[in-house]
């Protein structure tokens, strides 16, 4: 898992804007209440990138990105796994 503050700098060139292809249920509190998480999938050229935003104490989120996948279904499953496993990373 890779933490990056800016999706655009990693996957886009020529001033392209990231396009969210899928978003989970929105911000959800962690089990211990110390963080909020939000899973989503960003469409990039030739695929989809699973992502997870993690915000501690209501601050700016860190973004965890997984590797680019070919299908939206695989990317959604990976984003859901990021959300369920993020605390063990």
Structure commentary:
By secondary structure, the protein is an alpha+beta fold. It has one domain. Helices cover 21% and strands 38% of the residues. It contains 2 helices and 6 strands, in the order βαβββββα. Strands 1, 2, 3, 4, 5 and 6 form a 6-stranded antiparallel β-sheet that branches. A hairpin with a 5-residue loop joins strand 3 and strand 4. The longest helix has 14 residues. It is elongated and about 35 Å long. The N terminus is likely disordered.
Tell me the radius of gyration. Answer: 13 Å
Let me know the number of strands.
Answer: 6
SSE order, as H and E?
Answer: EHEEEEEH
- Give a quick account of the main beta sheet: strands, pairing sense, barrel closure: 6 strands, antiparallel
Strand content: 35-45%
Helix fraction, binned, reads: 10-25%
Low-pLDDT segments, ≥5 res: 1-6
Mean pLDDT: 82
| Gap from first CA to last CA | 8 Å
What is the count of DSSP helices, taking H or I runs of 4+ residues? 2
Supply the helix-strand structural class: alpha+beta
Into how many domains do the coordinates divide? 1
Quick one: overall form?
Answer: elongated
């Amino acid at each position: 898992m890779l933490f990056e503050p800016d999706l655009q700098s990693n996957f886009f060139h020529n001033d392209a804007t990231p396009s969210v292809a899928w978003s989970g249920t929105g911000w959800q509190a962690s089990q211990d209440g110390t963080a909020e998480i939000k899973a989503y999938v960003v469409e990039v050229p030739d695929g989809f990138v699973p992502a997870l935003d993690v915000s501690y104490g209501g601050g700016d989120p860190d973004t965890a990105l997984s590797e680019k996948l070919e299908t939206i279904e695989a990317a959604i499953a990976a984003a859901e796994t990021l959300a369920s496993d993020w605390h063990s990373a």
